[in-house]
Amino acid sequence: MAVKRISNENDMKLCVVMVGLPARGKSYISQKIVRYLSWLSIGCKCFNVGNYRRVLGVDKPKYGFFDFDNMASYHVREAALEMAFKDITEWFDGNSDSDNIDNTGHSNGSLTHSVAILDATNSTRERRDWILQRCHEHGIQPMFLESWCDDPETIAANIKDIATTSPDYEGQDECSASQDFKKRIENYKSVYSSLNTADDKSLTFVKLINISHEIVINRIETYLQSRIVFYVMNIRIRPKCIWLSRHGESIYNVEQKIGGDSSLSERGLKYAAKLRELINENVENNERLSVWTSTLCRTQQTAQYLPYEKLEWKALDELDAGVCDGMTYEEIEDVYPEDFKARDDDKYEYRYRGGESYRDVVIRLEPVIMELERQENVLIITHQAVLRCIYAYFMNVPKEESPWVSIPLHTLIKLEPRAYGTKVTLIKANIPAVSTYKEKGTSHVGESTDAEGAHNMLVNAPEMTQ
Ligand SMILES: O=P(O)(O)OC[C@H]1O[C@@](CO)(OP(=O)(O)O)[C@@H](O)[C@@H]1O
Question: Which region among 162-166, 404-408, 450-454 has the lowest average model confidence (pLDDT)?
Fold first, then answer.
């Protein structure tokens, strides 16, 4: 049974209008919001004005193009904004083909289109007034999100990122690209006006000062707006790794039973011992590692040899199988054939009688995700379904596919969230274990489709920004 959506009528068309000089992390923040809201089943898409400018033929502009006295280029930039805004209105109305232009975020499938992000500098009041006017005409709520930053380290890291990965500088050496980009920033600085509570007191806005050092919020009025504010308040941008592992093979895994609170098998205990080695070999600064487990015996046994700070989360407990807890998939098919089929048909939404659905697990995992965004150096030892949900958040896996992701036993997973995607590496312990992967349409657990292809891949890395 489906859980009620989080958004309400008033939240149906929200446009988050990014504001900020180049190299202030606007695209990074935009991408994160898209990923977070999509994970919560709220339709969200990013419209990057730089991509529209490239569609208009200006794909390798030099800094002079961004000179605000240059009227010819001013008109191109206005036209790009017009195009982006037109796509936003069409996307809200459900008849957009903007995917051809802007490939950010994953397919929204059947999600209601609720939040558009207009990713551009939007640096002058004049331009913001134009956007306000257009939002008003189309019944769209505008919410400005400014990233204001004067931290030289953050700016230098962003410039390097852009100089090396932006399509604007493709084929150019890093040094000359960085120099050009710095001059581009100077052009924007000459006209930039920051949001403030005196001049902009009638606007809904959030201003992040040096990412999370100081946050100014003004006129946040709806649930969805406050949710976005809460999320961006938790974002950190220092590079970090997140480590994930299922518990070692359990006795229930061997008996092909689901749920329960059984202990580890002998091979599962071997994995627990091996995990300490894997951490020592692979995790830098592991003396500061924090290990999060569920409250269930199998995850705690898996963590038993790890000499680090440990935290138990009820929210990390396995998906509750309700009346099916302790049964094998074959028994479930025999006793509850309709339920068995219903789950295969829509595994994300199906809720076990007296238990949970994947959607329920996502909702209870939100505080874990929020805390993960704030932390560095965390190893999470948890369960198959829970790991699928966490993995889906970081890897931008569409919700319909997330319950079918293969998360093999006895494998340490390293996630490296980056500005435009997450890199994943699988480290195998080479200790045999049963497979608990059940293919759609059968009650047998077969060989797991070991996600070998997931090695070192960047999923859904959208194009760089302007
Ligand atoms: O959603 P499906 O594919 O059934 O996977 C979840 C199942 O995985 C299992 C193993 O079959 O998890 P785990 O052993 O990791 O705690 C079951 O307990 C759980 O019900």
Answer: 450-454
Domain termination site, one of 187, 205, 234: 234
First to last CA, the chain: 43
Q: How many domains does the chain have?
A: 2
Q: Domain for residue 6, yes or no?
A: no
- Residue keyed to tokens 């759609």: 440
**How many A from CA of 453 to the centre of ligand 1?**
22
Ligand 1 site, residue 403, Cβ cutoff 6 A: yes
β-sheet bridge partners, residue 146: 19, 207
CATH of the domain at 83: 3.40.50.300
> What sign for the dihedral angle of Cα 262, 267, 272, 273?
positive
40 and 146: one domain?
yes
The dihedral sign for the CA sequence 340, 344, 345, 351: positive
257 and 206: one domain?
no
What is the extent of the structural domain holding 393? Answer: 242-458
DSSP assignment letter at 100: G
- The CATH number for 399's domain is 3.40.50.1240
Q: What is the pLDDT of residues 187-240, one digit of tens each?
A: 999 999 999 999 999 999 999 999 889 999 999 999 999 999 999 999 987 778
| Residue 343 included in any domain | yes
Alpha-carbon distances, residue 282 vs 151, 173, 285, 381 (angstroms): 31, 33, 10, 16
Per-residue pLDDT reduced to its tens digit, 347-382: 999 999 999 999 999 999 999 999 999 998 999 999
Q: Is residue 74 part of a domain?
A: yes
Global ipTM: 0.88
SS3 label, residue 111: coil
DSSP state for residue 320 in the 8-state scheme: P
If DSSP codes are grouped into helix, strand and coil, which group holds residue 251? helix
* Residue 87: inside a domain: yes
Domain-terminating residue out of 194, 209, 234: 234
Determine whether the shortest distance from the Cβ of 253 to ligand 1 is under 6 A.
Answer: yes
Report whether residue 343 contacts ligand 1, using a CB cutoff of 6 Å: no
Mean pLDDT over 373-395 rounds to: 96
129, 19 contact by CB (below 8 A): no
- Please choose, from the candidates 87, 90, 58, the residue with its C-alpha nearest in 3D space to the C-alpha of residue 74: 58
Give the nearest ligand 1 atom to 250 CA: 14
Co-location of 100 and 224 in the same domain: yes
Tell whether 181 and 302 lie within a shared domain: no
